[in-house]
From TrEMBL, chain A:
Domain 2Fe-2S ferredoxin-type, first and last residues per copy: 9-87
Function, in words: NDH-1 shuttles electrons from NADH, via FMN and iron-sulfur (Fe-S) centers, to quinones in the respiratory chain. Couples the redox reaction to proton translocation (for every two electrons transferred, four hydrogen ions are translocated across the cytoplasmic membrane), and thus conserves the redox energy in a proton gradient.
GO MF entries: 2 iron, 2 sulfur cluster binding; 4 iron, 4 sulfur cluster binding; metal ion binding; molybdopterin cofactor binding; NADH dehydrogenase (ubiquinone) activity; NADH dehydrogenase activity; quinone binding
Source organism per UniProt: Actinoplanes lutulentus
Domain 4Fe-4S Mo/W bis-MGD-type, residue spans: 246-302
A Pfam family reported for this protein in Swiss-Prot or TrEMBL: NADH-G_4Fe-4S_3
Note on how the cofactor is bound: Binds 1 [2Fe-2S] cluster per subunit.
Catalysis performed (reactions): a quinone + NADH + 5 H(+)(in) = a quinol + NAD(+) + 4 H(+)(out)
Origin: domain of life: Bacteria
EC number: 7.1.1.-
Listed name of the protein: NADH-quinone oxidoreductase
Domain spans labelled 4Fe-4S His(Cys)3-ligated-type: 89-128
Automatic annotation (TrEMBL), chain B:
This protein's record includes keyword Lipid metabolism: no
Name listed for the protein in its UniProt record: NADH-quinone oxidoreductase subunit F
InterPro entries for this protein: ComplexI_51kDa_subunit, NADH-UbQ_OxRdtase_51kDa_CS, NADH-UbQ_OxRdtase_suF, Nuo51_FMN-bd, Nuo51_FMN-bd_sf, Nuop51_4Fe4S-bd, Nuop51_4Fe4S-bd_sf, SLBB_dom
Top-rank taxon: Bacteria
Gene Ontology terms: biological process: cellular respiration
Catalysed reactions, as listed in the record: a quinone + NADH + 5 H(+)(in) = a quinol + NAD(+) + 4 H(+)(out)
Primary role: NDH-1 shuttles electrons from NADH, via FMN and iron-sulfur (Fe-S) centers, to quinones in the respiratory chain.
Keyword Kinase: no
Amino acid sequence: MTDVAKKADTVTLTIDGIEVTAQKGELVIRVAERMGVAIPRFCDHPLLAPAGACRQCLVEVEGQRKPVASCTQTVAEGMVVKTQLSSPVAAKAQAGVMELLLINHPLDCPTCDKGGECPLQNQAMSTGRADSRFVEPKREYEKPIHISSQVLLDRERCILCQRCTRFSEEIAGDKFIDLMDRSSGEQINVYRDDFFGGEGTGDGQVGEGEGDVPFNSYFSGNTIQICPVGALTSDQYRFRARPFDLVSTPTTCEHCAGGCSLRADHRRGKVLRRLAGDDPAVNEEWNCDKGRWGFRYTTASDRIMTPLVRDAVTGQLREASWSEALLAAAEGLKAAQERGVGVLPGGRLTVEDAYAYAKFARIVLGTNDVDFRARPIRATASPVTTTEEADFLAAAVAGITDVTYEAVENASSVLIVGLEPEEEAAILFLRLRKGHLKKKLKVTAVSPYLSRGFEKLGAALVAAVPGDEARLLNTDPAVAGALSAPGSILIVGERLATVPGGLSAAAALAERTGARLVWVPRRAGDRGALDTGCLPNLLPGGRPVTDESARAELSLAWGTEPGALPGTPGRDIDQIVAAAADGTLGALLVGGVDPADLADPVLAEQALDAVPFLVSLEMRQSAVTRRADVVLPIAPAVEKAGTYLNWEGRLRSFDAVLPSTAMTDGRVLEAIAALLDVTLGTGDVSAIRRELGALPAAAARPAAPATAPVETAQLGEHEAVLATWNQAIDLGSLQDGDEALAGTARPSVARIGKALAESLGVIDGDLITVSTDRGGVTLPAAITDLPPAVVWVPTNSPGSTVRRNLGVTAGAVVRLQAGVPGPILAEGAAL
Amino acid sequence: MTQPRPEVLQKLTPVLTKRWLSPDAWQIGVYERLDGYLALRKALDVHPDDLIQLVKDSGLRGRGGAGFPTGLKWGFIPQGDGKPHYLVINADEGEPGTCKDLPLMTYDPHSLVEGAIIASYAIRANRAFIYIRGEAVHAARRLRHAVDEAYKAGYLGKNILGSGFDLDLVVHSGAGAYICGEETALLDSLEGFRGQPRLRPPFPAIAGLYASPTVVNNVGTIASVPYVILGGADWWKSMGTEKSAGPMIYSLSGRVVNPGQYECGLGITLRELIELAGGMQPGHNLKFWTPGGSSTPMLTAEHIDTPMDFEGVAAAGSILGTTAMQIFSDQDCPVYNTWRWLEFYHHESCGKCTPCREGNYWMVRTYRRILTGHGTLADLDTLQDTADNIFGRSFCGLGDGAATPVVSTLKWFRDDYLGYIEGRTAPRLSEKTLVGAH
């Protein structure tokens, strides 16, 4: 910055007699804070627009008749500000406001969850009077009311600063919580029928009146975190702990690929709550409800604490010592090596653990049959020989880190395909929304319909029939137009893999328009597994397995015999499952994979049943552990150190939150390897980080795939193309254990267009059945502006487990029928 | 009742009120016969900038209470900015004691419609809104009728009188909130949101209705415009005082023989106005009064000769406000009256900011206690302190208005408070008012 430019952008003012330079437009309260003067405040929040509602931050500004709110006052050249430290007027004004705030506050600090970390409590100590002059009766409300299944509101504690309502409107875009009534009866509430003259139950609880609208937001927990009093609490944490008894440990969220910084508060070896961490580059100060409340799965009753081996006599799993179990695993894997061992690590691993699997597969098992992708990786109808996604990931994703949250926020325009940000990448959604609202970011969505999430991004829709996205990316002028401005970004979700030619078209489109391309997977470990080589065609660091020099480089680093690393691409997850199911494969080594997540759960379970030897590294009982020959318990994220690589490719390292004897996947694999006389060196995260850091940078990357799109299928009568994706809060196993969280899930519906509804003779809310030869799901219809012959259902929500019940994925042809299925269909259902 | 002396009667200057007694002046035919829509024809022949200049020259000041120069306000609207401009007329007359706009809209609604068209033309707005108080059903009905008539006569709609100027005028009824008389709360309410004042800046002239440049004017201001156009700036300035030009409708209520609206040049005194209103009621002696509604600091009998213009009232330590003069006598209790007002402010506080929301809650209860005979001497200090903590600390002027009668009565009539506290005055309220917290 030149001196001239700098001068124009700054002003000099005086606060409490001290001259200070500030950026133009900066708020007085921030400048004061920067120089160490803490002005008390409640409604002010750095990430929310100024409100000036609570009046706690009043200061004196020379030349102004009245005290001014320092949270709304911007600095000006020569301004003279006196805070409570130097102005009796400001001090009196602040003390007066504090007294007024407290007259109707219950002062129930000893029983309030916020007591001990409460801005009202703290600032009442610094700014308030020792005794109250107030002798009148206090305002009272029934307490608490559930404004959603998770969020509770004690209105008498509320000081009406409106941080919660402003967050919901400005940041999340979910205006389901608002001010109601006025004067001293003003309160925060949600829409309740009885409140507005409707019938309601009259007991004050939300959701019991027919027209009630609860606080419907995936980001509702943030309102609890920013509430400066104890008015908003969560069902999960309420009355469970006192803040001063908790130990806080910074960590990283294990749910999606967002990589949010979190703070886990724990006591006596148990996490009591999680809060959004403050990381301006990633999640700012927010997180989603799944990340906040989805942590009780680690204390589920089906957690596996000791190794299990299948007893040769009884055929049942029994508890075993580590040495017995490890030996059994090592011997079994060795015996199966000749026929082949498939490795399915799953998408939930840390970088360190994923690297252990990748290395284990190559140097212990001598195979490239490793694939982290626990999801459909190609269209239902595509032949399993296609390798489009793996080729795309090798060419355009592995090792690339040039698109960040900040880049998205500041882009001129983004095109999103194969991704529903609000459901599948919540914090990216918030950042897109910030860009849209504050920086005029233009969002274009290639999607079957304009969801509520896309509406909140002000997105333009390029309506796509599932399976037809590739053609649109190749030829639609609106698609190319959306990326024509310099600084555009193309965001593709992992679901685009199920569109033949989709990823090829995306790579070509980015090439053609000069837009930056970024791939957003759904799970926290996906990107790390990709970059550490948990793919049949890639070695760690994005090195192609077919590249001889890359193999030689790695052999050197790993200290293996030259030429020991297999040089042909291995089998991907579908091929491994198929090989296991038909008895070709000798063994499977499975990490955190749920067969229900795979393209065909029934086939996956057949494979698990058929494979001669099955080793499962798991935390809790699962469809895999029940079939395994050896089960080796591993540590959940909270009990280990590690690193997630988020969708940006940003390293998100964390230490163990809780002390634990549970072992990481890497340490277990190392122990197996040791029994097979191989030194894996993955037992310690720092060692792995050193080893990964020492790997030389990858050389040239392969060319992007050029798979051609396929024609969309011809539809018969009452047939439609299936659209589906996961809702943020669904049946995911990491959300187990918190009913209040599950209660905030969006209801399962089947979305169909108006014409389709008419042809079926159904209206909103009528049941319709979506079926294939495998089976069906029956859900209430929601008439939505969809392309004519498309039906959308949630992938893995209550009443709608698409992969298990339908056995297909997006783009497949399904049958539609009004009402509940008759006996014939029910017989056909593979349940 | 005494007849006003001729020299005082002469002070009546019926301009805005001149048609009020003409039968059916609210109908367009009668209005047109009484010089109606002449100013519009004249205005449409003039360049909008010249109209703004004319209004500036006339010295017309806002009639809603603050007295901001109208022409200056119109001049703030950026021209040629490519954005739509809006005229919003504040007809949410709700200040206790004020009743000048509602009779105007009831008896002479076309003058407001005509003023709205001229003002819109001047600021280059093609859409204007009249935000009328929801309770004023009768006035809204007359106003809507007048707007319909104006559309039919070609004064509204496309290409008004062949000038090429288009204007749509919408009459919008509020839902009964005093706060919506505050201009930014009014704009939020008009946009369909909860009526609460907005943070300023940005000011409405830059980002008002739908974030576009907006002029918000009072009914009396806009209804004055046709007369300024027809009579000219010099004629307008021939009434009133140098800095407070023109006629003003004074609403007299309380202990006078003939309460009502009296239109006189700005600067008339209360003594003259009481005379015009037939004098004080028999047996009543003036004790205290508000110059411009209950939000303005109270004045006493000693201020009876204060000139009632912006400067004169300010010099006496109060505000001209809406020239709603509530006149109280020695048979009225200032403590009781203040409580009545406070119940109003407490009920009408929007709740946005702490001082107004909580302070009124507290003061109302303290007054109830004093008036039931349970007050203490310490209550007076607490009341004074609470009023001080509201005044100038709240988000908008509502809180200031609520604190004002408290401060005034504590200043002028402390002994009346002591009467209740020391048991010299019989309690005015029953114990029942102390029950319940809402």
